[in-house]
Amino acid sequence: MTTDKTPAPGLDLTVSCGYASDVGLRREHNEDSLVAADPLFAVADGMGGHEAGEVASSICIRTLTDSRVAGRSLPEMDPEELQELLVTADELIRAETGGRAGTTLSGTILVQEGGAPYWLVFNVGDSRTYRLSQGGLVQITIDHSEVQELVDYGRITPEEALTHPRRHVVTRALGTGSDIDADFWLIPAVVDDRILICSDGLINEVGDEQIFNLVTSFAHPQDATDALVQAALRAGGRDNISVIVVDISGGSLRVATDTREFE
Ligand code: MG
To answer: How many Å apart are CA 122 and CA 251, to the nearest integer?
Structure first.
């Protein structure tokens, strides 16, 4: 896979990323889709089988890549505008698949607000976005899934969620007629941030500690990406595995300090 390196005009900021999507060892088709092209980084995990899942996830990603922010360094964009794109994606998926298919979506757009760079992180479903910052790997997004609700209610532990029989049931998705409201976070982008975006094919195979070790063991984001995918394959590869790792570097970023959450 290739890697993007795009200097952002006006800010001393360099974005680099690695990405990979692997069918895994058990599935016939890869129903995941992704985009990794500054400023858009997102993974969509299609569901519905018989190629319908592929259609749903690819329509979702194409809706983002057809949007006005695609290919623009540090665009301005607010959560409401992004939610409108998701409404469009939902309608297009339902028109194409008749409600038989759906998709999750998680990722980030590197936006600017008030002249400072932010990660606009978004999530619908159970794909995930993490941020490695100041030595820790923090899961930003919260799964929209039945097992997450059971964890929230204290009925099961996060460890039990990993093997729970209903762990694949999502409570929000695009295209299926269910709730399509995304959660959003606007997080100041800081030099040396590393963002990890992945489908559940990584999370269900590789534990948090190993993900942390692999994300921090490689300087180049493509090497980290490849190592994560290989770890998921070695662990069984029971689902499609999609991974994006995004780095920003640069010397004179104006750093914002306020993190906002929109749920
Ligand atoms: Mg999956």
So the answer is: 27
- Two structure tokens written together for 140: 């930003």
104 φ, ψ to 5°? -85, 170
Q: Which is more confident, 122 or 259?
A: 122
For the beta carbon of residue 135, count every other beta carbon within 10 angstroms. Answer: 7
Separation of 76 CA from ligand 1 center, angstroms? 31
pLDDT for the residue 213: 97
Structure tokens at 126: 């159970």
On average, the pLDDT of the chain sits at 91
Q: Which residues pair with 20 in a beta bridge?
A: 243
CATH of domain 3-251: 3.60.40.10
Angle, helices 79-97 vs 52-65, to 10°: value is: 150
- What dihedral do alpha carbons 56, 61, 65, 66 form, nearest 10°? 20
| Ligand 1 geometric centre to CA of 211 (Å) | 17
pLDDT given at position 93: 97
The Å distance, Cα 234 to ligand 1 centre, comes to 17
- For residue 122, pLDDT over 50 is answered with yes
Residue 240 is predicted with a pLDDT of 97
- Please say if the pLDDT value at position 157 is more than 60: yes
The three-class DSSP label of residue 258 is coil
